[in-house]
Design goal:
Two copies of one chain form a homodimer. With about 160 residues, the first copy, chain A, is of the alpha+beta class. Chain A has one domain: Winged helix-like DNA-binding domain superfamily/Winged helix DNA-binding domain (Arc Repressor Mutant, subunit A). Chain A has six helices and five strands, in the order ααααββββαβα. In chain A, the strands form two sheets. Chain A has a three-stranded mixed β-sheet with strand order 4-3-5. A two-stranded antiparallel ribbon of chain A has the order 1-2. In chain A, helix 1 packs antiparallel against helix 2 and helix 3 crosses helix 4. The radius of gyration of chain A is 17 Å and the shape is globular. At the A-B interface, strand 3, helix 5 and strand 5 of A face strand 3, helix 5 and strand 5 of B. The structure holds zinc ion (4 copies). The site of one zinc ion (ZN) has 9 residues of chain B, from helix 6. Chain A binds a DNA duplex (30 and 30 nucleotides) through helix 4.
Chain lengths: ~160, ~160
DNA sequence: GGCGGGTTTGTTACAGTGTATCACCGCAGC
DNA sequence: GCTGCGGTGATACACTGTAACAAACCCGCC
């Protein structure tokens, strides 16, 4: 199985993610079509956040063009099912390796150096956010938490180099 | 002085923000040109996050066209000085009403209903985030924290209506 | 005043991201 | 067969952002 370099917190392999996607769709009575599978696979294999146009190019081959619009539709579907996430600060998409509940506060850790994106969730962080919002009299519906920086692997490599 | 409706946590008025912008530029030996002032004013007066093209249209008049690229340059300048913020999830810009330090963790509270955007900062939230990142072995450089939901004013209005 | 160099702005063109629309296909259900 | 519906293909388009170059502007200096 392919496993990308660069950041090591990617617990689930590509096969695991595809299997989970398939079972999620089956459970919910939804179609895991070839196109959706290919898009999921492309996102899962990349090892870093992929733009929709990147995915379209990856899936295209001489004689078989996949238009970006098709990729967007597949991505919309996969996002609704919680199988991929959109990284707003990059206009790009990553596979969800965790299968957390929707609405659960998750922080995306985006490495400047290797481009890898990990997810971190934390009770503590979520509590802090909830209290901050409550103090402001704000009722949250959806959060976007993204941090750009250097992942442990890349930091180690820099210090060693 | 104009004060928009919708959310009430906008402490600073348009005049205050313009005055601060002017003094910030003077202190730093930078030019607060007419264009930059107009863009700052447009962002400050809007009451909700404005797209660059919206601002360009606002500033344009028959016979005097302001191109989006000029607006982008002014916005880049104002962002560098911490006078406006970019809302990544909206591709839009708001004035900074607080004058906080750069790099300080600030959450943007985006109201679905009125479109207003407030800033909230919290020691507690920042500590939670720091600890979460530390646990993940991640060194942060820049954070994007945006929450979409309903502001207090709009929630009150909904319950009343 | 005239000159030189940095900054700001205007203008055009272009790249990147995302959506609307309509037609076509495949398949389940009648 | 026919119909309805979800998925896909294809084109066009809107929105967001940047590159490149020229013109204008400012300011210190001769
Ligand atoms: Zn996830
Ligand atoms: Zn890294
Ligand atoms: Zn601010
Ligand atoms: Zn509101």
């Amino acid at each position: 199985m392919h496993r990308h370099e660069g950041h090591d917190a990617c617990q689930a392999g590509v096969g695991d993610m595809l299997a989970r996607a398939e079972s999620v769709c089956r459970e919910r009575g939804l179609q895991f079509t070839p196109l959706r599978r290919e898009v999921m696979e492309a996102v899962a294999e990349a090892g870093k956040a992929q733009g929709a146009y990147d995915i379209a190019e990856t899936l295209s081959a001489p004689g078989k063009r996949v238009a970006p619009v098709s990729v967007y539709r597949a991505l919309d579907f996969l996002m609704q099912q919680g199988l991929v996430h959109r990284i707003a600060s990059r206009n790009a998409f990553i596979p969800c390796a965790h299968g957390h509940a929707p609405g659960e506060g998750v922080v995306f850790l985006i490495c400047r150096s290797c481009g890898g994106v990990d997810e971190a969730s934390s009770e503590e962080l979520e509590d802090g956010l909830d209290r901050t919002l409550k103090r402001a009299g704000f009722t949250p519906a959806h959060s976007i938490l993204e941090v750009e920086g250097d992942c442990g692997a890349c930091r180690g490599r820099q210090e060693a180099g």
